[in-house]
Specification:
single chain; 182 residues; alpha+beta; Thiol Ester Dehydrase, Chain A; 6-stranded antiparallel beta sheet
């Protein structure tokens, strides 16, 4: 492993420790319900999730990835591809790639939702360009919104390792809609 890769990996691990500790501390506190978050801008909910002030979805715990940062129109997820995520060939299953990328894409779109608006994935396209094994300690999925309108949103994401290797890239089209009143 090159010195640059080691430095990047260590930075990622340090950032992860801070985010996970902050989230753990925040999760010990009571949280507002879904109706509260539906009445707030999406960016507020996403950033509250990073801080542990909103409960993150359980899929991240199941697949060993978590949201690291959300800004307007961008979401960064970090994951640990592990033995539990392998396919019969001994590499990480394509569903793991798709799920972490879909999470980064969806949360990037969510960060652009005004109060009372929601979205759902209508189309997801994933291109895996290099296999992953548990020897790659961490990867990052970074999603960016390309367009966010009243009815449709589109976004793209890349999954990379600490050495800059591209493992996969993805795009999504999301349907945007009015949330039902509680």
């Amino acid at each position: 492993m090159s010195a640059h890769t080691e430095t990047t990996l260590q930075r990622w691990l340090d950032e992860e420790a801070v985010v996970l500790a902050q989230r753990e501390l925040g999760l010990r506190q009571p949280h507002p319900d879904r109706a509260h978050w539906a009445s707030r801008p999406g960016i507020e909910f996403m950033q509250a999730m990073v801080r542990g002030e909103a409960t993150p979805p359980s899929i991240g715990h199941t697949l060993d990835f978590w949201v690291m940062e959300v800004t307007e129109g961008q979401a960064v997820f970090q994951g640990r591809p592990g033995a539990a995520h392998m396919n019969p060939l001994g590499t990480i299953h394509g569903g793991w790639f798709a799920t972490i990328l879909d999470s980064a894409l969806g949360c990037a779109v969510h960060s652009r939702m005004p109060p009372g608006r929601g979205y759902t994935t209508a189309e997801l396209s994933v291109n895996i360009v290099k296999s992953l094994t548990p020897q790659i300690q961490r990867v990052r999925a970074v999603g960016h919104v390309l367009h966010c309108g009243r009815q449709l949103a589109t976004a793209e994401a890349k999954l990379t390792g600490p050495d800059g290797t591209l493992y996969a890239h993805a795009t999504t089209t999301c349907l945007v809609f009015e949330l039902p009143k509680p």
